[in-house]
Write a structure and sequence with these properties.
The structure holds two protein chains of two kinds.
Chain A lengths: L5 E14 L2 E14 L3 E5 L6 H8 L7 E6 L2 E2 L5 H11 E4 L11 H10 L8 H11 L15 H12 L6 E5 L7 H18 L2 E5 L3 H4 L4 E6 L2 E3 L3 H19 L5 H5 L1
Parallel strand pairs in A: 3-8, 3-9, 6-7, 7-8
Antiparallel strand pairs in A: 1-2, 1-4, 4-5, 9-10
Chain B lengths: L1 H17 L1 H34 L1 H5 L3 E5 L12 H13 L1 H13 L4 H7 L2 E8 L2 E9 H13 L6 E7 L4 H6 L7 E3 L5 E2 L3 E5 L18 H4 L5 E5 H7 L6 E4 L5 E8 L12 H6 L1 E5 L12 E9 L5 H11 L3 E5 H44 L1 H9 L4 H42 L9 H27 L19 H22 L2 H10 L3 H43 L6 H12 L1 H37 L5 E5 L4 H10 L4 E18 L6 E3 H10 L12 H17 E7 L9 E4 L11 E5 L2 H6 L6 E10 L2 E15 L11 E4 L11 E8 L4 H9 L5 E4 H44 L1 H9 L4 H37 L9 H27 L3 H7 L1
Parallel strand pairs in B: 7-11, 8-10, 17-22, 19-21
Antiparallel strand pairs in B: 1-12, 1-13, 2-3, 3-12, 4-12, 5-6, 5-9, 8-11, 9-10, 14-23, 14-24, 15-16, 15-17, 15-20, 15-23, 18-21, 20-21
The chains are: A alpha/beta, B alpha+beta.
Chain lengths: 259, 990
C-alpha cells in the first residue's frame, strides 16, 4: 500500500493531561492507520481516549510523544500557525452539538472556512450554495442556526466541514443530539460524502447503531487500541440485523410502534 | 480580504445584536465617558462663546471705567502705549490738539490732586478704630471726562453713562449706608446689605436691556423717581411682587416695585458685582437720588459706547493718559481675560473628561473579558475551521471597535442631553444666561477618543481570545481562559500607553504644544518641540499606569482579604457573596478602581469646601457672639456698653481693646543677647524657617516674603489688653496663660507662628515695644518691656483684638487703644433692633457674623460648583462601570442563580445576595474614595496648620452612603432581570 493511500497515520502516541487536580493518561502509545476513502468509527467506553485521539488527529491538540501524519504531513510537532492551515485545508470537523456560528446564516457558516483559506480552491458562496443544495438545504441558505432543526444544523455542519474539500472528515458523536430520523439522514449524508468525494470519514461514537453502519471499527479501551471485542461485534451485528428488518418492514419502525 | 473584513463586521454586529444586555452595558460604559467629554467640552465652548459674544454687554459698554485701587502716593505709571495713543489723538486732529494738550496738562495727575480738584470724592469711615477712605468719581469727575471726550477726536462718537450707588462697598457690607436695606411696608420685613444700582434708566445698560421677569425693560417700567426694580433674590427674601411698596433706608419716600429682575441682568463681573450677587440689588433712576437726604451723586463706574468699536484701545489709552487714576476695562481686556479663563476651563474639562472615559474603559475591558469567556467554544470552532490566532483577535477587536463607534455615538447624544441639563448650573456659576448650542468639535473629539479608547482597551482581553485552544471544542466544559502571554501582554500594554499618550498629549498638552509651535521657528525645532512634549506626556502616562497598576493590585489584595477573612456568623447569603467576591476579585478590583476615582474626586472637592466652611464657622463661633460692633474710638466704649447691656435679648458682650505697637528690641533669656529690628531681620535671614509652606520660588523671593510678614508677626503688630482669663480651650506650646494675678504687669502671651518659632522666641524672653497712641488730640507713645510668659498654639478664630495679649492695665492710662470692638451675643430676632441702636452712635456699626458666613459660602459655592459638577459626572461613570460589572457577573452566574432558585431560593433572596455583594463593594469604594479624600484633606490641614476639627466627618459619612447608594442602584438595574430568570430555561435549554 502506498503512503498516499493512508490519510491518517498514528504511531505510538502518548498523551496525558490534568483534569482538575488529577493527572490522566489518556493515550498510552496508541498506533493506528486510516486509509483514503474509508468510513471508520472509533468506539469505546467513556474515558477510553476517543475524544483525545480525535483532537490529536484533527490537529486540535498535540501529542506528548509519537507521530501523527495527516495526508502524509507530520503534524505531531507542528506550531499553531501551520497546524491551523492543516485544519483549514485537510480536515473537516463535525461536532455533536453542531457548533455553527449562531450569528451567521447557513450559507455564511459554510463559506467561512473558504474565506479564511490561504489556498482558496473555490468561490466561498458558490461552493457553500452547491454543498447546501447537495444536502437538501437549498431553501435554508439564509436561515440562522436557531431557525434550523437539529438534523438541518448537522447537515450544515457537514457541508461546512467539506467546504475546502478536505481528504479527512472527523465527526465527534455526530448524531448524539439528534432523533432517529435525523440521525439516519446525517449518517446517510456522511456515507454520501465518503462515496461521492472519496473523503475519509472517521466518526467517534459510542452509539452502536452508528457503529453498525461504518466499514471499519477501531475500538479504544483505556487509551489503547483494543482487539475487536466479541461482545461488541455481536451487539453491532444485532443492531445491524434489526436495522435491516426495519428497513424491509419485517419489524415495524419505532414511530409506528409508539403509535 | 474584503470578505474577511465583511465577516468580522457582520459577525461582530450580529453578536452585539444577539447579546443585547451585554451590549447595552458595554455601550453604556463607553457612552458615559464620551458623554462626559462631549458635555464638558460643549459647556466649555458655550461658556467661551457666551463670554466672547457678550463682551460689550458684559462690559456694559465698549469701555468701562472705575477708580484704580492704587494708592495716592504711588507713582503713576504712564505706559508707552498710552503716551503714543495720546500723541495719536492729538496729531490726528490738529484742530483740537492744542486744546487737548492743554486740558491734559491741566488735569490732576494723582488721586490726591483729583480729590483736591473735586474730580474724585473721598468718603472717610472708621473701622475698628482705624480711619479708612473710599473714593468715587464725583459728578464733576464725570463731567471732566465728558469734557475731555468733547475736546478729543472722539467728540460726538462716544456716548457716556454712569452707574451711581447710594452707599459704598463698605457701607453695604456693614449695612450702614443709605439705601443698603429695604423694608416691605406691608410686612415690615427687611432685606439688608443690598447694592443700589442708580442709573439713567433711559440708556442703561449700553448694548442690552435689563429685562424684568415679566418681560419689561427698565426704561419702560421706571417712569417716576419712586419706581424701583428689585433683584430676584430681594423679591424672594421679602416676598415682593410688582405693585408692592417698600421703604429704603435713608429716604422717607415710599417706593413702588415696578419689576423684578434676575441676577444675571446686573451680576456680570465677579469683582465689581460681588455684593450685588451675594446679597442682592435693586435699580433706581438717577432722579431718585433727590429723595435721599444729603446724597451727592458719585459714580461707581462710567461706561462708554463707541461709534467705532475698533478704536477701543486707542480711546482707552488716551483716557488713561488723561485720567491716570482710572482703571479701564475694554472689550479687548475682557476678551483676553475670557480667553485665559476658557483655556483653563477647557484644559480642566478635557482632563476630567478623559479620566471619565478611562474609567469607562474599565467597563470595556471587563465586557470584552466576559465576551471572550462566553464565546470560548465559538472561538475554538473558528480555530478548527482554520482561523489563525491573529484573525480571532481582529474579530474581537472589531467588536470592541464597533462598541466604541456605537457607544461614542450614543455618548454624543447623551453628552448633548447632559449639556442641556447642566446648562443651568453653569449659568448660575457665570451669572449669565448660557445659550444651548450643538457644535461639531466636542462631538468629533468625543467620538474619536471614544472609539480609540474602546478599541485599544478592548485589545488586551481580545489577545486572550486568540490563545483559546481549539481542543476546547471537544471538552467545552473544561475550557479555561488562557493567558495572553507575557510578551503579548507587554506589547499590548505598550500600545495602550502610547495611544493614551497621544490622546493625553493631544488634549491636555495642546497649549504646551501651541507654545512650542509659536516659539520655535524652524520645522526641525517644531518637531523637536513636539517630540519633547510627547516624551513628557509619555512619562506622565507611564507613571499614571504604574500608579493605577499598584492601586489595582492593592485592591485585588484588599478584596481577597475581605472575602477570605470577613466572619459570616453563619449568614449564608453573606458567605456566598464573599465567596463570589473572591472568585471575581480581579473584576471587582477594576470596578472598585472606577468607583474609588469617582468618589475620591467628589469627596475631595466637597470635603475641602465643607472644611473651609467649618473653619469659618469655628472662627466665627470663637468670636464669642453673633454681632460684631466696630467702635470709632475708645471713649465710646462706656456709652456702647451701657446701651448694649440695657437691650433686650442681649445674652453677653465683651469689649476687645488692642494697642498698636512698634518693635524696639528683643532680648533672649537664654543667651542674654539683645536684638534690634535690623538684628531680628538678619536672624530671620540666617535661620532656616519653613515658611511659606510649599514655596517654590527663589531664596531671595522667600526672604522677601519672610521679611514682609515680620511686620504683622512681630515688628508692627497689636497687643490686646485682656481683662478676662477664663479661656479653657487653649493649648500652650510653652509657658502659661495669664491669670487675674497678672493684672497690671507687663507680661505677654504670644501665639505661635513660623517666624517666632524660627527666631527662637520663647518664654522668659523679653520684647520691648513702643506703644503708639493716636487720638484726635494728638499722638503719644511710651516704651514697655514685656516678658513673654506663654506661647499658645495657633488657633483658627476671629482675632478682633490681636492674637497677642497682655493683662489689662499693663498699658498706661495715658495711651488709648488703637482698635476697639465689641462682641455681642444677642438673640437673632433682636439683631435688627441692636443694629438700629448701634447706628445711632456716630462712627459705629454692627455686623452679623452670619453676613460673613453668607459671603464666604457664596464664594465657596461659586468656586466649587463647576468641579463638583464634573466630579459627579465621574461618579456617574463609576456607577455605570458597576452596573456593567454586575450585568456581566449575573450573566456569567446564570447557571448558579438558576441552581439556587431551583433549590428553593426566592427571587428577592437571590437579588439580596447580589445587592449584598455590590453593597460591600460600594462600601469599600466609599471607604477608600472618601478615606483618600480625608487623608488628602488631613495632610493639607496639617501642612497649613489648620485644626483637624474642621474636617467634615459627617459629610464624609454621607458621601460614603452615596457611594453605597450608587453601587446598589447600579447593581439593582442590572441584576433585577437576571434574578427573575426561570431556572428551567437556564438549566435545561442553555
Amino acid at each position: 500500500m502506498s503512503t498516499n493511500d493512508v490519510v491518517v497515520h498514528v504511531s505510538n502516541v502518548v498523551k496525558s493531561f490534568q483534569a482538575g487536580e488529577v493527572a490522566v493518561q489518556a493515550l498510552r502509545g496508541i498506533s493506528l492507520e486510516i486509509k483514503r476513502g474509508e468510513f471508520v468509527a472509533i468506539i469505546g467506553p467513556s474515558g477510553s481516549g476517543k475524544s483525545t485521539i480525535m483532537g490529536i488527529i484533527g490537529g486540535l491538540d498535540t501529542p506528548d510523544s509519537g507521530i501523527v501524519e495527516i495526508d502524509g504531513v507530520d503534524i505531531s510537532t507542528m506550531k499553531e500557525r501551520p497546524l491551523t492551515r492543516i485544519r483549514n485545508e485537510k480536515i473537516g470537523f463535525v461536532f455533536q452539538s453542531f457548533n455553527l456560528i449562531p450569528t451567521l446564516t447557513a450559507l455564511e457558516n459554510v463559506a467561512l472556512p473558504i474565506q479564511f483559506s490561504k489556498n482558496r480552491q473555490f468561490n466561498p458562496h458558490d461552493r457553500a450554495r452547491e454543498l447546501l443544495t447537495q444536502f437538501g438545504l437549498e431553501d435554508r441558505l439564509d436561515h440562522r442556526p436557531t431557525q434550523l432543526s437539529g438534523g438541518q444544523q448537522q447537515r450544515v455542519a457537514i457541508a461546512r466541514a467539506l467546504a475546502n474539500n478536505p481528504p479527512l472528515l472527523l465527526a465527534d458523536e455526530p448524531t448524539g443530539n439528534l432523533d432517529t430520523e435525523s440521525s439516519d439522514i446525517v449518517l446517510a449524508a456522511l456515507r454520501d460524502v465518503q462515496q461521492k468525494f472519496n473523503t475519509t470519514v472517521c466518526i467517534v461514537t459510542h452509539d452502536m447503531d452508528v457503529a453498525s453502519q461504518v466499514d471499519r471499527i477501531i475500538t479504544l479501551i483505556d487509551g489503547n487500541v483494543a482487539p475487536d471485542d466479541p461482545r461488541s461485534t455481536a451487539q453491532r451485528q444485532a443492531v445491524k440485523t434489526l436495522r435491516e428488518k426495519r428497513r424491509t418492514g419485517e419489524v415495524p419502525a419505532l414511530a409506528e410502534q409508539e403509535s | 480580504m474584503f470578505e474577511q473584513i465583511r465577516f468580522y463586521l457582520s459577525h461582530s454586529f450580529n453578536d452585539l445584536r444577539v447579546n443585547k444586555r451585554l451590549t447595552f452595558f458595554a455601550l453604556l460604559s463607553v457612552a458615559a465617558g464620551v458623554a462626559a467629554i462631549v458635555s464638558l467640552q460643549t459647556l466649555a465652548l458655550m461658556i467661551s462663546e457666551t463670554l466672547e459674544s457678550n463682551l460689550q454687554e458684559t462690559n456694559r459698554g465698549d469701555v468701562a471705567a472705575i477708580l484704580a485701587m492704587h494708592d495716592a502716593d504711588e507713582p503713576l505709571v504712564t505706559n508707552d502705549s498710552a503716551e503714543t495713543a495720546s500723541d495719536e489723538i492729538s496729531e490726528t486732529d490738529n484742530t483740537v490738539s492744542d486744546a487737548e494738550n492743554t486740558s491734559n496738562s491741566d488735569l490732576p495727575r494723582t488721586r490726591d490732586e483729583a480729590v483736591e480738584a473735586g474730580i474724585i470724592a473721598e468718603n472717610e469711615f472708621t473701622i475698628f478704630g482705624q480711619s479708612q477712605s473710599e473714593y468715587k468719581l464725583s459728578q464733576s469727575g464725570v463731567e471732566a471726562i465728558e469734557a475731555w471726550i468733547a475736546d478729543s477726536i472722539f467728540a460726538g462718537q462716544i456716548e457716556t453713562t454712569y452707574r451711581a450707588a447710594t452707599s459704598s462697598g463698605f457701607e453695604i457690607f456693614t449695612g450702614t449706608g443709605k439705601g443698603a436695606s429695604i423694608t416691605d411696608t406691608e410686612s415690615g420685613n427687611q432685606a439688608s446689605q443690598l447694592s443700589s444700582v442708580v442709573v439713567d434708566t433711559a440708556v442703561y445698560p449700553f448694548y442690552s436691556d435689563v429685562v424684568t421677569t415679566d418681560g419689561q425693560t427698565l426704561a419702560s417700567v421706571m417712569q417716576n423717581p419712586t419706581d424701583i426694580v428689585v433683584g430676584d433674590s430681594v423679591a424672594e427674601q421679602l416676598d415682593l411682587e410688582v405693585g408692592d411698596t417698600v421703604q429704603i433706608n435713608g429716604s422717607s419716600a415710599t417706593f413702588t416695585v415696578r419689576g423684578i429682575a434676575k441676577a444675571e441682568n446686573e451680576v456680570k463681573n465677579f469683582n465689581t458685582d460681588f455684593f450685588a450677587g451675594v446679597f442682592g440689588f435693586y435699580y433706581l433712576d438717577w432722579s431718585a437720588l433727590d429723595l435721599f437726604d444729603d446724597l451727592p451723586i458719585q459714580a461707581e463706574a462710567v461706561y462708554f459706547k463707541m461709534a467705532d468699536a475698533s478704536q477701543v484701545t486707542l480711546f482707552g489709552d488716551g483716557l488713561l493718559d488723561a485720567f491716570p487714576y482710572l482703571s479701564l476695562t475694554t472689550t479687548e481686556d475682557l476678551r483676553e481675560d475670557n480667553e485665559e479663563l476658557t483655556q483653563q476651563i477647557d484644559s480642566f474639562v478635557a482632563v476630567m473628561g478623559l479620566i471619565s472615559l478611562l474609567l469607562g474603559s474599565i467597563g470595556i475591558i471587563n465586557t470584552m473579558q466576559v465576551v471572550v469567556r462566553r464565546r470560548m467554544l465559538e472561538i475554538a470552532v473558528l480555530k478548527t475551521l482554520g482561523l489563525q490566532s491573529d484573525q480571532i483577535t481582529i474579530l474581537f477587536l472589531t467588536q470592541a471597535f464597533l462598541v466604541g463607534i456605537i457607544g461614542s455615538l450614543a455618548g454624543i447624544l447623551l453628552g448633548w442631553v447632559g449639556t442641556f441639563a447642566l446648562k443651568g448650573v453653569v449659568a448660575n456659576i457665570f451669572a449669565s444666561d448660557i445659550p444651548f448650542m450643538i457644535t461639531p468639535l466636542p462631538a468629533i473629539n468625543g467620538f474619536a477618543v471614544g472609539v480609540v479608547v474602546a478599541t485599544v482597551f478592548g485589545f488586551l482581553p481580545t489577545l486572550t481570545a486568540g490563545q483559546v485552544r481549539p481542543g476546547t471544542v471537544l471538552r467545552p466544559a473544561q475550557g479555561v481562559i488562557p493567558s495572553a502571554g507575557i510578551l503579548r501582554s507587554l506589547a499590548a500594554l505598550t500600545l495602550i500607553i502610547m495611544v493614551v499618550t497621544v490622546i493625553v498629549e493631544g488634549i491636555i498638552d495642546r497649549y504646551i504644544v501651541d507654545s512650542y509651535l509659536s516659539s520655535f521657528g524652524s520645522t526641525m525645532a517644531k518637531i523637536v518641540g513636539l517630540v519633547d512634549s510627547y516624551l513628557w506626556a509619555l512619562g506622565g502616562v507611564i507613571v499614571a499606569f504604574i500608579a493605577v497598576g499598584i492601586i489595582y493590585l492593592l485592591l485585588v489584595l484588599l478584596i481577597w482579604i475581605i472575602g477570605r477573612f470577613t466572619p459570616t456568623f453563619g449568614f449564608v447569603d453573606l458567605k456566598i457573596s464573599l465567596r463570589q467576591m473572591l472568585v471575581s476579585k480581579n473584576r471587582g478590583a477594576s470596578t472598585l478602581l472606577a468607583l474609588v476615582v469617582g468618589v475620591f474626586s467628589l469627596s475631595t472637592i466637597t470635603l475641602f469646601a465643607q472644611s473651609i466652611a467649618n473653619i469659618l464657622d469655628v472662627a466665627l463661633s470663637s468670636a464669642g457672639g453673633n454681632v460684631i460692633v466696630s467702635v470709632q474710638n475708645y471713649n465710646q466704649v462706656d456709652e456702647l456698653e451701657a446701651l448694649i447691656s440695657g437691650m433686650e435679648g442681649v445674652n453677653d458682650y465683651t469689649a476687645k481693646l488692642a494697642y498698636q505697637v512698634e518693635f524696639v528690641s528683643y532680648a533672649s533669656a537664654e543667651t542674654g543677647e539683645t536684638y534690634d529690628t535690623e538684628a531680628v531681620r538678619q536672624r530671620v535671614r540666617d535661620s532656616d524657617i519653613d515658611f511659606p509652606p510649599f514655596f517654590n520660588g527663589t531664596a531671595e523671593e522667600k526672604d522677601a516674603i519672610q521679611q514682609e510678614i515680620l511686620d504683622p508677626f512681630l515688628l508692627n503688630t497689636a497687643i490686646e489688653s485682656r481683662s478676662q482669663f477664663d479661656e479653657t480651650d487653649i493649648t500652650f506650646i510653652s509657658g502659661r496663660d495669664l491669670t487675674a494675678a497678672d493684672v497690671g504687669q507687663p507680661l505677654l502671651v504670644l501665639e505661635e507662628n513660623e517666624i517666632l518659632n524660627g527666631l527662637g522666641i520663647t518664654t522668659g524672653d523679653t520684647i520691648t515695644y513702643n506703644i503708639v497712641s493716636e487720638t484726635l488730640f494728638g499722638s503719644s507713645s511710651e516704651q514697655i518691656t514685656f516678658e513673654v510668659v506663654g506661647i499658645r498654639a495657633e488657633t483658627v478664630s476671629i482675632k478682633l483684638g490681636s492674637p497677642y495679649y497682655a493683662p489689662v492695665d499693663a498699658f498706661p492710662e495715658s495711651l488709648a487703644p488703637s482698635t476697639v470692638s465689641l462682641i455681642v451675643d444677642v438673640d437673632e430676632e433682636q439683631v435688627p433692633a441692636l443694629r438700629r441702636a448701634i447706628a445711632e452712635v456716630p462712627g459705629t456699626f454692627a455686623i452679623e457674623t452670619s453676613v460673613i458666613t453668607r459671603l464666604f459660602t457664596s464664594l465657596l459655592s461659586t468656586f466649587t460648583a463647576f468641579p463638583t459638577m464634573v466630579a459627579i459626572l465621574g461618579l456617574v461613570v463609576g456607577g455605570v462601570v458597576i452596573a456593567n460589572s454586575v450585568a456581566l457577573a449575573t450573566m456569567e452566574r446564570r447557571h448558579e442563580i438558576a441552581v439556587m432558585k431551583s433549590v428553593g431560593l426566592q427571587r428577592e433572596r437571590v437579588l439580596g445576595m447580589l445587592l449584598l455583594e455590590n453593597g460591600i463593594l460600594g462600601f469599600i469604594g466609599g471607604l477608600l474614595g472618601v478615606g483618600f479624600g480625608l487623608i488628602a484633606l488631613t495632610a493639607f490641614s496639617v501642612a497649613l496648620d489648620v485644626p483637624l476639627s474642621s474636617i467634615p466627618f459627617d459629610m464624609a459619612f454621607w458621601l460614603m452612603l452615596l457611594c453605597v447608594g450608587v453601587a446598589l442602584i447600579a447593581a439593582i438595574t442590572s441584576a433585577w432581570e437576571a434574578s427573575g430568570e426561570k431556572p428551567l430555561t437556564v438549566l435545561r435549554y442553555e
